[in-house]
Write a structure and sequence with these properties.
Length: about 400
């Protein structure tokens, strides 16, 4: 496709519809977008003939949404492309580590092949930005990082990405400090960690070592935190303090953070204010089987919240389809966001905060100058797209069609 063209006949949201003072639906209009150099350079309504010598790509009156962000996935763990297997039961997380270390190296498919398969799945579902955690531990060395980097290289120009150097078996417990340091030198852009109390056995030492590595490499942080209730909230408070001390505000995330939903509302509210001050993002996979962090409260307190699919058919879970829009819908189900406004605004959890309309019904996206990373879906509104997990017809990354297609 030409670097300059018109994406014609796309459906844009223009405002909310009201009935007796209550939002009852969403109003849309058909528009044409001029794409140039991967950016939206012009937006015009389709009520007049378009006179242009530029190529045209017909959007078929499909709804235009910002493309999605997959904020938490493990490209190196997936079994996609390999034969079916259910999960082997184990007694605890330590047992899960051992199963994974035994199975993954024995597979006939390579880590790179499986990662590429998962990237294709994510892209077809509308995700053009991916944050992947990559296991770093002595037995694997930097193999997983190297394989994932090769997989990502095959998708150059189709998506953007971040790589988290993730000491899955505990930064302290597995003695992986030097390996993580090497991973940060070799292209990882964030450092991860896991359960400073229950896996590493020393909250302070684990967090201190993680933050020291982050400061040394000028890297962000994304901590897996499954530790429950007050043990988990204690860890979060300490991480927030260390984040402020290190000057890493806005560059730290806590994935899962189940503890926020396991303590009284007052404790969660107090901690939310601390997290907001430290600029810490909470990332949830919206699992069916755990208490979720209180997303509405976090949002109210100014804490950034994002979603990720996490495990997608691996030695930890046999489930998962790589569809982050499905996770947004699951969040809506869990928190009973069933009206037009709350459903439409829930899209922001998988787009970095972008929604076509703001809460007042004014167009917030797209605007001239925005990156042309978009998804065309079969839906009448964002609310319908989230609630019904609308079919993705075409995915564009910086103006280039990267998944799906629009037939003439």
């Amino acid at each position: 496709m030409s670097s300059s063209y018109w994406l014609t006949n796309v459906r844009l949201e223009s405002g909310y519809l009201y009935e007796n003072g209550v939002i009852s639906g969403t109003e849309t209009e058909i528009c044409h977008l001029r794409i140039e150099g991967g950016v939206i350079n012009e937006i015009v309504t389709a009520d007049k003939p378009l006179e242009t010598d530029l190529p045209k790509q017909d959007g078929k009156n499909l709804l235009l949404l910002p493309s999605f962000i997959e904020k938490h996935v493990h490209l190196d763990k997936t079994l996609i492309g390999d034969t079916w297997r259910a999960v082997t039961p184990v007694a605890n997380i330590m047992g899960r580590f051992e199963v994974e270390k035994r199975i993954l190296p024995s597979l006939p498919t390579s880590t790179q092949e499986r990662a590429e398969n998962l990237l294709a799945t994510l892209l077809s579902a509308g995700s053009t930005e991916v944050r992947t955690h990559v296991d770093i531990y002595p037995e694997a060395g930097l193999h997983n990082l190297e394989a994932v980097q090769k997989a990502l290289d095959t998708y150059e120009g189709k998506l953007s990405y971040e790589i988290v150097a993730f000491p899955q078996h505990g930064l302290l417990r597995s003695g992986s400090k030097e390996l993580v340091r090497a991973a940060l030198r070799e292209g990882a852009t964030l450092i991860g960690g896991v359960d400073p109390a229950m896996v590493d056995g020393d909250v302070e030492a684990s967090l201190q070592q993680m933050m020291e590595l982050a400061v040394e490499a000028n890297a962000g942080v994304d901590l897996h935190l499954h530790d429950p209730d007050y043990l988990g909230t204690f860890t979060m408070r300490r991480l927030a303090a260390l984040t402020m001390e290190a000057g890493l505000q806005g560059r730290v995330a806590i994935s899962h953070a189940f503890a926020l939903g396991e303590v009284p509302a007052g404790e969660a509210a107090d901690l939310s204010a601390i997290l907001a001050e430290a600029g810490i993002t909470i990332i949830t996979s919206a699992p069916h089987s755990r208490t979720l962090p209180p997303v509405p409260l976090l949002h109210e307190k100014g804490v950034a919240v994002a979603a990720g699919c996490d495990n997608i058919f691996d030695t930890w879970q046999p489930f998962g389809n790589g569809d982050i829009l499905e996770r947004a819908g699951r969040l809506a189900e869990r928190f009973r966001w069933i009206d037009e406004l709350s459903l439409s605004q829930s899209l922001g959890f998988i787009t970095g905060g972008k929604t076509p309309l703001d809460r007042d019904g004014k167009r917030a996206w797209p605007n001239v100058g925005d990156e042309a990373s978009v998804v065309l879906v079969e839906a009448t509104s964002t609310a319908e797209a989230v609630a019904r997990r609308a079919e993705r017809k075409a995915v564009f990354y910086r103006g280039t069609l990267v998944a799906g297609g629009l037939q003439p």
